[in-house]
From TrEMBL, chain A:
Signal peptide start-end: none
GO terms for MF: calcium ion binding
Name under which the protein is recorded: RALBP1 associated Eps domain containing 1
Cellular component GO terms held in the UniProt record: cytosol; plasma membrane
Organism, scientific name: Neogobius melanostomus (round goby)
Residue ranges with Basic and acidic residues bias: 623-636
TrEMBL record, chain B:
Listed transmembrane segments: none
InterPro entries found in the cross-reference section: Longin-like_dom_sf (IPR011012), Sedlin (IPR006722), TRAPPC2L (IPR044760)
Biological processes, Gene Ontology terms: endoplasmic reticulum to Golgi vesicle-mediated transport
Signal sequence range: none
Originating species: Neogobius melanostomus
Cellular-component GO terms for this entry: perinuclear region of cytoplasm
Record protein name field: Trafficking protein particle complex subunit 2-like protein
Pfam families documented for this protein: Sedlin_N
Gene3D superfamilies attached to this UniProt entry: 3.30.450.70
Keyword tags: ER-Golgi transport, Transport
PANTHER family: TRAFFICKING PROTEIN PARTICLE COMPLEX SUBUNIT 2
Length: 712, 139
């Protein structure tokens, strides 16, 4: 190719660019990836780029060798300054500004160009001004460190313009920077700028002071995570391990470059910000802060995403349905195929809706794609939905409050279908409507790492405790006679067994009190998961229960039939459990009581199984309280047998959950609650015992009084 | 390990078809097309019973000397067809079933994507990945 003479500055700049593009380190760069991005970022029409490629000989060779690359860069600079593309102009043009590569196009860019084209020194800045890609390393070096290194550390844009004033600072930081002699990580700097933009909020024409402030602001969060070089080095493939950029910039902020730069950089930062903002028309584009690290979402970005989320779906714990998300992301003008891929990546639980976390991840990916970054094949870790902790703590208390501890009869929420998509989307409604509704049968819920999901599952799970067999048990009336007392306690257990069958293995988790429930809800998600996972899915299995297909039920039935409880056979689908009496006193267990009632009712309403529509059991309970009371005695002995049988079958209430600490804690909590429940039951039963004893004594006295008469 | 996997829409046009490239792909297209007749026949045969009861997995549709064709139809009449090499005798029915199950799951995921219009060709990379995992690895 024609010989190319480059100035020192150009030489350094180009070599950095080359190294940046030369990911394979083969000293020749294929015409793809970085190179194309670079050329694209040069903001030249594609035919010009093609022409350049051809001119520099890359098309001949099939790849960009170093010289071709340099020629191409120079031609880009020529084209950008408006000169016709000629091979001769390569060497003839004097004082050619360095090629500019921008992320976004705008007039500010031109302004920058003008700003930086006055002198050689500043010739390097056009690139920097445009916020992107390689910072003239030499420049940076000059700025940052006295002795320029050949490989040049990427100079942060901000720093660059302030070469002279900043010289001392660079010296100070040079020792820090020196280890990072790796090629400039332009994408990083690019990203940083973007970040800044996101922080700076789109305002193209920001006032200088504001710009400076933003700049500072931008730097600070950036410096936060950056100190660890290792962090930077763990970039994903698109970002080569070019820590120098990152560390460099990271170092600079703390090391006083900011203050020094602040006054002088204000202007530049303004321009940078404006320049760097991608040429996206909608808000998404404005907030195209590049992802740090490389996919991490900054605070400002996250805030922006959250605001966007709110605009679509005011409830932060809710979901954005697929259609709304589709409209929203279509506005970003990305091709549908890419949007589809982004969706696949970000919809972590595959439910057809986006939670806040998923939405942030999707938005972030859109932003990244807009800035030219290729989409990953798998969701980067930093975008995984579990990162939504920030919102979780805020959001969770609300749902817990809402989830209510429905004291009133619960009705099976229509949402409780086994289908996951509807299930997920039903959660918000469920949470809100939980006060009186929703018998929360444990429903199979797809396990997601999302804490929100976990929390919701937890909520749902604990909500289901209303229905829990144990809850009504607490309501055992004091009037139970001894047997019934005993049976009541056994029933309690039996009820738990039943509860196991249809609610969850965590039988004793039912908390009558909202407080305890809240405790469990604020508990860990694994608890909910655990709770949800083992129990069988709702309606159908329940039905199977009623058909006594479960082993427990079979045994129960067997035990029941042994004493000859035909009446109760059907009903015994539920452990002989609670005589309706207790239910009277403890309204909150109506739901459960309702389910319990069928068992206690010999009328074998249990034909429909315990899972008959809850209102029915409730009604039954209410009206048959009285009838059941006398029946209790009969049921008692029978029930005791059954209860004993059921008790035997009672699966260990704390089912071995010990997978992780959270689960253990959850089970501990559950057990504590169970303990309280049992303690209450115990006290009630004691009371009943006392009453019965009194009764007995009075009867005996009466008998004694009568006996003399009988003898008479 | 399949040599060809195809997803056919309700209207019997292909949504996705992928074969081991070394072989004559047209042959597989033709095979899949002819297997549709068998699928229809099987569906209609069970048509009397309630749709719910209908087995989704159709089993071996028909064998030829070179390969065997298995079919699976969803409740929305989307058909999955897997062509396996006859020489691959180690493939048991269970494995085919699990392959179909995986296909069905990833197909569901594709459908859940709001950017995917039902009736479009399936262009999801995840789906491609899953299918590649099931294809014979030689190609």
């Amino acid at each position: 190719m024609e010989s190319l003479t480059l100035s020192d500055v150009e030489q350094k700049y180009y070599s950095d660019l080359f190294v940046y593009c030369d990911t394979d380190n083969t000293k020749k760069v294929a015409s793809n990836g970085r190179v194309l991005d670079l050329f694209r970022a040069a903001q030249l029409p594609s035919e010009v780029v093609l022409q350049i490629t051809e001119l520099c000989g890359a098309t001949r060779l099939g790849h960009f060798g170093r010289s071709q690359f340099y020629i191409a860069l120079k031609l880009i600079a020529i084209a950008q300054s408006g000169l016709p593309l000629r091979v001769e102009s390569l060497n003839s043009v004097k004082d050619l500004p360095l090629p500019r590569f921008v992320v976004g196009k705008n007039e500010a860019e031109a302004r920058h160009a003008a700003l930086y084209q006055d002198s050689d020194n500043q010739g390097l800045y056009p690139a920097s001004a445009t916020s992107v890609i390689p910072r003239p390393p030499g420049r940076g070096l000059q700025n940052k460190k006295g002795p320029p290194t050949s490989t040049s550390l990427p100079v942060h844009e901000v720093i660059q313009p302030h070469g002279p004033p900043v010289d001392t600072q660079p010296e100070a930081t040079s020792p820090v920077v020196s280890p990072h002699q790796s090629p400039p990580t332009s994408p990083l700097s690019w990203r940083k700028h973007k970040r800044q933009h996101s922080g700076g909020n789109v305002d193209r024409q920001q006032s200088v002071p504001a710009a400076g402030a933003v700049w500072t602001q931008f730097r600070e969060p950036q410096s936060g995570p950056v100190p660890g070089e290792g962090m930077w080095s763990s970039h994903s493939p698109p970002l080569p391990s070019q820590e120098s950029w990152v560390s460099f910039t990271a170092d600079t902020p703390p090391s006083s470059t900011i203050p020094a730069i602040h006054p002088s950089s204000v202007q530049e930062s303004t321009t940078i910000r404006t320049v760097a903002s991608a040429a996206m028309t909608n808000e998404i584009q404005r907030q195209s802060s590049a992802y740090d690290d490389p996919w991490k979402i900054t605070e400002e970005q996250r805030q922006y995403y959250i605001n966007q989320f709110k605009s679509i779906q005011p409830d932060l714990t809710g979901f954005i349905p697929g259609s709304a998300a589709k409209e929203f992301f279509t506005k970003s003008k990305l091709p549908i195929l890419e949007l589809s891929h982004i969706w696949e990546l970000s919809d972590f639980d595959k439910d057809g809706a986006l939670t806040l976390d998923e939405f942030c991840a999707a938005f972030h990916l859109v932003v990244a794609r807009k800035n030219g970054y290729d989409l990953p094949e798998k969701l980067p870790e930093s975008l995984m939905p579990k990162l939504i902790d920030l919102d979780d703590s805020a959001e969770v208390p609300e749902p817990t409050a809402e989830v209510g501890y429905s004291a009133s009869p619960v009705e099976v929420t229509p949402n409780k279908s086994p289908s996951m998509p509807s299930l997920n989307q039903a959660w918000p409604e469920m949470n809100q409507s939980n006060e009186d509704t929703a018998i929360v049968h444990p429903v199979p819920i797809r396990m997601t790492p999302s804490k929100i999901h976990m929390q919701e599952m937890e909520l749902k799970r604990t909500g289901s405790d209303h229905n829990h067999p144990t809850s009504p048990l607490l309501a055992k009336p004091p009037e139970l006679n001894e047997e019934t007392k005993l049976t009541a306690s056994m029933k309690f257990v039996a009820a738990n067994a039943v509860g196991d069958g249809y609610s969850s293995s965590d039988s004793f988790t039912s908390d009558q009190e909202p407080i305890t429930r809240q405790r469990s809800q604020s508990g860990t998600s694994p608890e909910a998961l655990k709770v949800v996972a083992p129990p069988p899915p709702p309606p159908r299995p329940h039905a199977s229960h009623s058909r006594s297909s479960s082993l427990d039920m079979n045994r129960t039935f067997a035990a029941a039939s042994a004493p000859g409880q035909q009446q109760q056979n059907n009903a015994i689908a539920f452990p002989p459990a609670v005589p309706p009496r207790p239910l009277i006193h403890f309204n909150q267990f109506q739901a459960f009581a309702a389910s319990e009632k069928p068992t206690s009712l010999p009328e074998a309403k249990g034909a429909s199984g315990p899972f008959a529509p809850p209102p029915k059991p409730v009604r039954r309970r209410l009206k048959s309280e009285d009838e059941l009371r006398p029946e209790d005695e009969q049921h008692g002995p029978q029930k005791s047998n059954i209860i004993a049988a059921v008790l035997a079958t009672q699966p260990s209430i704390p089912r071995s959950i010990g997978k992780d600490k959270k689960a253990i804690q959850a089970s501990i909590r559950r057990n504590k609650e169970t303990n309280t429940v049992l303690a209450r039951l115990n006290s009630e039963l004691q009371q009943q015992l006392k009453d019965l004893l009194e009764e007995r004594i009075s009867l005996e006295v009466q008998l004694e009084q009568l006996r003399p008469f009988s003898h008479l | 390990m399949a040599v060809c996997i195809a997803v056919i829409a309700k209207e019997n046009y292909p949504l996705y078809i992928r074969s081991v490239p070394t072989q004559n792909e047209l042959k597989f297209h033709y095979t899949v097309h002819t297997s549709l007749d068998v699928v229809e026949e099987k569906i209609s045969a069970v048509g009397k019973s309630i749709g719910d009861q209908r087995e989704l997995y159709l089993g071996l549709l028909y064998p030829t000397e070179d390969y065997k064709v298995y079919g699976y139809v969803t409740n929305s009449k989307v058909k999955f067809v897997i062509v396996v090499d006859s020489s691959n005798t180690s493939l048991r029915d269970n494995e085919i079933r699990s392959m179909f199950r995986k296909l069905h799951n990833s197909f569901t995921d594709v459908m859940c994507n709001p950017f995917h219009n039902p009736g479009d060709q399936i262009q999801s990379r995840t789906f491609d990945g899953i299918v590649s995992g099931m294809m014979v690895q030689t190609a």
